[in-house]
Predict the 3D structure of the following.
Amino acid sequence: MRSQRIDSSGQMTWRVLGIQVPVDAPEGETRRLAAKRLGLKERELLGFRLVRRSLDLRGRRSGRPASFVVHADCLCPEGHRGAALNRAVKSGKVIEAPSVNGFLPLDMSGAVPKRVVVVGSGPAGLFAALPLAQAGCDVTVLDRGASLDERGGDVVAFHRSRSPRPESNLLYGEGGAGTYSDGKLYTRTDDPLEWPVLQALVRAGAPEDICYDSRAHVGTDRLHSVLRRLRGTLEEAGVKFLWRVRMDDLVINHSAEREVRAVVTS
């Protein structure tokens, strides 16, 4: 049997793959089918989380009904074994579940500076700033564009005049280039950091199904409010935002392994 993730209590977490569930199935059917594949009854599962859900429309022409294909993580009782689980692992229908505990704790005792400047307020910048601030860093986020409220006026002016503002437009400003998209989230990397990022978006108002839908979609009507709430979360953690500030250069100490000493802005 392949190795499995075991928490401090000895309980095991397995990922059950490719569960076929009719689209009109009653609530709880996915959990029941996942437990069955593991050789358990539904009530014996100690924890259950949808990981991915996609719509399967194959076979429509032959009359086969539409269904969801679901992956789910299941927390099993300590010491659970059995023929059903062994068969599922051997066939590849059950695999070890990756850890999804949250943002990795940062070791601030080494070379990581206490003061950090993050350049850009796109997704990468925001989710770099958040764990750094939670780890105790003094974090400042620079963006050459405007905050969302001001950026919205700049974008409206562009649509009306077709004359873009060089520093605040569809590319630059709060949220990055995706702020004026329709909020699609197609990344499914199975990286442990995917879960805390998606959870942060849900806490900021994104729909919960972005955590498992294969074609996750925050929605154009929600995206801007999610960004504002996410900024509020970062500000509560101590992050400072400077808008309409462009990074022009870095001051580097070449004698100390190219240590960045300062950021030159305009």
The radius of gyration is 23 Å.
